[in-house]
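hey so i finally got around to running both of the ones u sent me last week. sorry it took forever, my laptop kept dying halfway thru and i had to restart like 3 times lol. anyway pasting them below in the order u listed, first the sequence line then the structure token line for each. didnt double check formatting much so if smth looks off just lmk and ill redo it

first one:
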Amino acid sequence: MKDIFHHFNWLAVLIFFSCEKEPSLLINTELTQWPKMEYPLDNQPNGKKIALGKRLFHDPILSLDSSISCSSCHKEEYAMADNLPVSLGIENRLGKRNSPSLWNIGYHPYYMREGGVPSLEMQVLVPVHEHNEMAFNMLLLAKRLNSDSSYQTEFRNAFNDTATPYTITRAIAQFERTLISNNAPIDAYLAGNENAISREAKSGLALFFGKANCSHCHSGPLFTNFGFYNNGTATSINDYGRGQLTLDSSDFFTFKVPSLRHVKSTAPYMHNGSLTSLSDVLNQYNLGGSGLDYTSDGIEELKLNNRELIELEEFLKTL
């Protein structure tokens, strides 16, 4: 998958600037070459499993006290993310990280902001067991589901089996792989609709792949290279990011690059939800971060003027 999300060729930038009305062929190719959705051999697409997974995703039965569901933190009106800096779990327990959008989540090569979970099926286990989220247990959850006659029927129809940690995780993962978003204004523009985005957004597109160089990390049709960086956001000893997984000091306070799809609807921003608006995000990048010791190489002042910041924000809104 990493081959698909290659770094942008600077020749394309030069070609792009020579043509104001249409993106260069190289930009168009980069942004329209979607990866192939990968499915585990033991969890191929199935309509009954998807329907069951959707029901489970929206059912608070997954949490210890049946008070919150997956959709409590991944709301459709906020692009399958949340509008809080960090979401609330059962008993109003405060989470640690900002809830990411789940649009196109099935294309990701690994999960969680430190990248420590290799599959969607395994990722389902995390919020169910996390103390500050659902605080439950998969075995007890399976027992609870099997005591419900309607769930008994759905699991039998979908898997020819009862609810188990295996069938629960696979059903939810099936539903999450259907969360595909590829028809934003930028997609219409790339397909040839010149009026799909504004003049300001077109200038922002040039900045994104040129002067601002956002595409160095936010590349491909998902606008992420899935790398791990510290982008200059304030750090906390309560969250070492990827460093918690690798115990390597070079990974301290680094986090997976998020997709920018639907970014206009997923405020607040950053792994800790510390920035409230897109303009705040762009201003931080324009300053080269917050001057922290762990800021990754490549995060430096962009030197964009006010007009350019507005144009770049207008482009982000087309995603």
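and the second one:
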Amino acid sequence: MKLQRFMPRLQHISSIFLTVVFILVCTPTSFAGPASGQDPRPRIVAFGDSLTAGLGVSADESYPAQLQQRLDALRYHYRVINAGVSGDTTAGGLRRVPWVLNSKPDIVILELGGNDGLRGLSLDQTRSNLDQILQRLQQAGVKVVLAGMKLPPNYGNEYTADFETLYQALAKQYRLPLIPFFLEGVAASATLNQADGIHPTKEGYTIIAEQVLKTLCPLLDQQTGKP
């Protein structure tokens, strides 16, 4: 009888606990840095999936963290925020746009779609999601750098070709700086990827950060009026 009396309370406590766990697991986290009120630098948000989050490496080895280090060394006064969420698809990214805009970014580096492709999702839906993300970012006055992706050949010639050209078409449509292939020089390298063959090592992310920097710097120079 006593156990029955406490069951509703136990169920209530369990419900609260599960809700808290869900929030902690599912809420995106930013790259560690000063509180927004204390850092007046304009912001670059790295918006993506596990390749942006830096799955499998320490926080300071992810590409956004290494990009911050390179920008600091080159005296570009921007703060890089890591908005990568492991496992995210373009649909998940679309739902997170308000959170990204809440960071008040000047520039967003958009790296999404790889998980869509690996799951064989509809390319029409992937494009529609990216379309909406880009529209919302541009409507908010945010500059966007688009990171292109490619798929392994075992997904079929037509699907892989259409997947790759999807990014080229979006970059042309929205007049965006395009990184043709985010993992250029890193994909399929046993020494630059972790044991899963998908996620880069620290050294792999170093190469990615340099590639992002090459596309990003002209935009930063344009923003600051630097010759």
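quick thing i noticed on the 2nd:
The two ends are 80 Å apart (CA to CA).
anyway thats it, ttyl
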